[in-house]
Amino acid sequence: MMTKKEAAAEIRAAKVRLGLTWAGLAEAVGRPVSWTTAALLGQHPMSKDEAEAAAEVLELGPEVVVALQLQPMRGALETVVPTDPTIYRFYEVLQVYGPTIKELIHEQFGDGIMSAINFRLDVRREADPAGDRVVVTLDGKFLPYQW
Amino acid sequence: MMTKKEAAAEIRAAKVRLGLTWAGLAEAVGRPVSWTTAALLGQHPMSKDEAEAAAEVLELGPEVVVALQLQPMRGALETVVPTDPTIYRFYEVLQVYGPTIKELIHEQFGDGIMSAINFRLDVRREADPAGDRVVVTLDGKFLPYQW
Amino acid sequence: MMTKKEAAAEIRAAKVRLGLTWAGLAEAVGRPVSWTTAALLGQHPMSKDEAEAAAEVLELGPEVVVALQLQPMRGALETVVPTDPTIYRFYEVLQVYGPTIKELIHEQFGDGIMSAINFRLDVRREADPAGDRVVVTLDGKFLPYQW
Amino acid sequence: MMTKKEAAAEIRAAKVRLGLTWAGLAEAVGRPVSWTTAALLGQHPMSKDEAEAAAEVLELGPEVVVALQLQPMRGALETVVPTDPTIYRFYEVLQVYGPTIKELIHEQFGDGIMSAINFRLDVRREADPAGDRVVVTLDGKFLPYQW
Amino acid sequence: MMTKKEAAAEIRAAKVRLGLTWAGLAEAVGRPVSWTTAALLGQHPMSKDEAEAAAEVLELGPEVVVALQLQPMRGALETVVPTDPTIYRFYEVLQVYGPTIKELIHEQFGDGIMSAINFRLDVRREADPAGDRVVVTLDGKFLPYQW
Amino acid sequence: MMTKKEAAAEIRAAKVRLGLTWAGLAEAVGRPVSWTTAALLGQHPMSKDEAEAAAEVLELGPEVVVALQLQPMRGALETVVPTDPTIYRFYEVLQVYGPTIKELIHEQFGDGIMSAINFRLDVRREADPAGDRVVVTLDGKFLPYQW
Amino acid sequence: MMTKKEAAAEIRAAKVRLGLTWAGLAEAVGRPVSWTTAALLGQHPMSKDEAEAAAEVLELGPEVVVALQLQPMRGALETVVPTDPTIYRFYEVLQVYGPTIKELIHEQFGDGIMSAINFRLDVRREADPAGDRVVVTLDGKFLPYQW
Amino acid sequence: MMTKKEAAAEIRAAKVRLGLTWAGLAEAVGRPVSWTTAALLGQHPMSKDEAEAAAEVLELGPEVVVALQLQPMRGALETVVPTDPTIYRFYEVLQVYGPTIKELIHEQFGDGIMSAINFRLDVRREADPAGDRVVVTLDGKFLPYQW
Amino acid sequence: MMTKKEAAAEIRAAKVRLGLTWAGLAEAVGRPVSWTTAALLGQHPMSKDEAEAAAEVLELGPEVVVALQLQPMRGALETVVPTDPTIYRFYEVLQVYGPTIKELIHEQFGDGIMSAINFRLDVRREADPAGDRVVVTLDGKFLPYQW
Amino acid sequence: MMTKKEAAAEIRAAKVRLGLTWAGLAEAVGRPVSWTTAALLGQHPMSKDEAEAAAEVLELGPEVVVALQLQPMRGALETVVPTDPTIYRFYEVLQVYGPTIKELIHEQFGDGIMSAINFRLDVRREADPAGDRVVVTLDGKFLPYQW
């Protein structure tokens, strides 16, 4: 059986080989680009139709179609603290602003959390004369502590 | 000398005692609420005026005023992986979506990172009939790898 | 300011000194015993009334009343893997049965998790001729992955 | 020799390929579903009959039959703290409620532990108008500290 | 409240000051020497009578009597791998012989464990012309895996 | 070259295939059962005669004979804290009773250690009406600190 | 697909086999030697032209050309603290002088950091009668904390 | 006795209180600014004269004078990986460029290291129209591996 | 009770205050200098006479005399890998030459270890025109593996 | 390309197969035995002549000759704290005597370190009627802290 991790490696290679984009793959799959990228990288299971649509564009075989449908064992960082600078900055944001985010959630909502399950993510480019900006929006349902 | 950490503890206590809010403190200081919260929790240095404005509303003394102006040694998590559920969910987002964010930044901008220094953060409540949502926006300047 | 951890230590001491039980404290507070124990050990914030009811029975002062109302920074294990045998057995259950629980949740519900926020816990004694049994029930709302 | 881990991978693949369920496999094996799932994932040794029954339904060969009978080296988490959200929530329960569970066991039974060896586990779906619930029951014999 | 750890420090100091032995303390308490030492070091709760008997011989006050009766949070090593050579050798035994012990338990008893709860320990000196020997006996009830 | 670890895997497989026991293998080798098990699991080097005797009974080839004679790089636990419950209980004994063992060695012998090199180990079953017991004896020469 | 790590291994081997130098490779690629070395070791993506120029001199095939163009997952140390003495000395510099560097950056620039993205590195030999010196220059744009 | 760490805290406080700079302190002490900062932060021992000169400008007492002369136990990071962003960037440089630096040292010097003992450090501001730059120079004697 | 660690701090301070040397202290105590230094730093228990001799020269009181006689809990490094460069170099020797030392011990002695208990240590200065040398001799009894 | 680690495994196997000794290999190579052993285990690069001399005696091919000449990435312990008892004892020496060695180096030489680069190592057997001794000499140039 091909694992989801092996499928992700095949997908990255095919994407470079064929000059595809995540945005284009998302369109082919018919889902938002962040969700599609996460799914193709092995963090969400796809439906059979989604998997087949992706595999067709990527010119990959039935093993990949099966792997994309498997229920994932999630968790994509290879080390507890990420070493890649692009990913590390988000860990740094957590180090510097984690307690701030916690305080502001509690002030606005009371005791509870932002769901990471009923959740969507957006990454977009915002033009700015002082240098364009990366704007990442984390948008999750509030879940109050409830006995 | 009072440390920034001790000052933050005093501030939390005074805030509860006086029934203040982070939003109210931000208004008194004249800065955005996320920045002000982070600064009062010891992650940013305040100017003398900002520190005095905060201390006055919080009814705290000159030691706190000095502490708030000190250059911080940043990093607010007490463990490498946070245990508090409200903060942990953001670490989980990084575990599940970290490589997705990396791929999308590279697709939209090329090789580089979102700055965590030239950076602003917003936490807001978005009404939703299926349950209100926590929307956290991370907004940093794109920095291309540049030799 | 008294921290929630210091308040918990005071509470444990008073409980032994006065010969109280968690069940009795829960009755005084008017909440389930598991919730009340967790709250008195510093893992949930109490309302002012609950805190005052607890402090009165425990013969403790106003500092404890304030501490019990504070929003907690949750996470009660002092080491990543607990060393106390009574607590360790639950970590062992996770080591041996974690993937089993995951498979069964996915088989019965699809992709998602058991909420640890919209959640209740029960610990009870079940008589058994072959030796009484500890029955711990973890009961959380199912949260489907939902974009 | 095929390891128990390799056998588990074969079993997961066959289960998806043939559209089987853990419940169905448990019926074929004639043991409770939680026990059977744990055994097929490599955490319990099966008897020869159980292993053969499982292998037949899964259409797998004699190597798997042997592997399922081996005495396991138990412990299924690949990291000290699990990263998969479905499993992590149980670790979080331990972080938030571990000391509560300990206190309540001691209050009801005295000094001792819930056995994780003389132990059974149940995962079931409970219908609830506010959203169905995952109910996990941990049921182990009480073992008093006894010199 | 005096913690069990603080009580243990007081006890060690008093023992040196008064020239007492663990064997003598065990006799005063009326329990086996290994159990008594573990209890005085904070790893077992004592009954009121035992605690008072120990405190009297050690010439310590009522705070110690209370501390000795408290339910312990067990786990006495300050680091995951012990650095003290006398204790480390036992960790080394586990590194070199752990799987051997596991194999021999399974061969003699089937699938299960030696209980560390229904358990007793003995440390004794055995005369030997080639150099006296430390003989440590670990004696626990066998617990079979039992669903 | 076959490593000692690969040889151990071959040996476990052959032992199951041929229905042998560690006790029987020890008899064939002519050494105590604990020593023989440890050696066959790769923690002690065997003499040529011992290795050949073991390989003959196990019906294994000359590569195994060589591997069994190699000087081992000792240390058999795959994680710093063992996760297998049968082995973990001995780590727990060290957590709960480590300082007790240290105190009793020093009381009976003075400053020094139990050797883990000039050392023998025994695991035996002791019948007990309340449930048979696992009795593990650790028996090492006392080594005084000596400059 | 050949990974960047596998490509780096091929490159090191070819470099030794053909007696090439990093300086020579940098000249062939037309980029600074530090940048070129980092890119060939898998820490920067190359353009198609650069990758082809490098592969030609190294007499390596098209798989290497593709690998060199891939976006890297950066982070080259195999352990959190490096063990190789040549690399460790730089970690030691950070242990001994890290806070000094921080203080001096803040004194000369205010609150902010040296960018590791808009950054260049130089390693050169400086003749010195008391023994030649390794001079490593880290040169990054100052980024002020800016909301 | 005042530790070097406590002295460093006193020094930082006095420096803020009196509006001094590290550059000014270095001048008073008569040593380079990087060395002086490191020494005042507790990473180098000062001579009696240097310590007295520093203490005089800082208006601190004889305890600080003694502490500054003590031989340090070096190592200033509180965590294995630094969390403060200003310091972290240098760890990131090591993650991304560590093997590059190693290769270039070996190419220019042969097998050996840059000394971190016979070593000097400089941090300076370099004006740049595209944004001023932080230039950190690490300058250590080359030490060849020599038996 | 004064701990051995607190006594060591007092001793270091007194040694600096009185201008004593470890060599001089060893002479006063009548034991080798390495042993005496280790004992005064808390790693060996002293006899009453030795402790009194040391305390007299150091002009310290009876609390120190008692502390020096206590049985130590050994292990003097504050982190698993030492950060102080003078101590780290010995860890580096172990990283680079550990397996070499192991091979040579086994070649010269057979299977066994150098005792760290029946052990003595010497640190001396050896004049050398190319720069004086630190010569550290580790001298321990060979202990063969012996069942 | 054969790595130095793979070459080391080949060398160990050949050494056993041909009944060679490290001492004999050192003679063939014409270098000290400790250096030669370290080099053959992959911790030092050999010259072409040395590599060929070693390979000839070991009856190994040209791939090994190349591997032995490669610049090593040093660091031979597979875990941060070694588990093999023969190697662990040297880590224990560091735990017990590390600060003693540091104090004595500083007393005899001033502030600085023993070089682990300009360094030689000797392991020899010293006859002793009370049991032969392992004498390990670490001999490195003193390097004073020098700005």
What does this molecule look like?
The structure is a homodecamer of 147-residue chains. Chain A is of the alpha+beta class and 147 residues long. Chain A has two domains: 4-69, 434 Repressor (Amino-terminal Domain), CATH 1.10.260.40; 85-144, 2-Layer Sandwich (Cyanate Lyase, Chain: A, domain 2). Chain A contains six helices and two strands. Chain A has helices at residues 4-18, 22-29, 33-40, 48-58, 62-69, 85-109; strands at 112-126, 133-144. The first copy, chain A, has a two-stranded antiparallel sheet with strand order 1-2. The longest helix of chain A has 25 residues, at 85-109. The N and C termini of chain A lie far apart (42 Å). At the I-J interface, helix 3, helix 6, strand 1 and strand 2 of I face helix 3, helix 6, strand 1 and strand 2 of J. Strand 2 of chain I pairs antiparallel with strand 2 (133-144) of chain J, so a sheet runs across the interface.
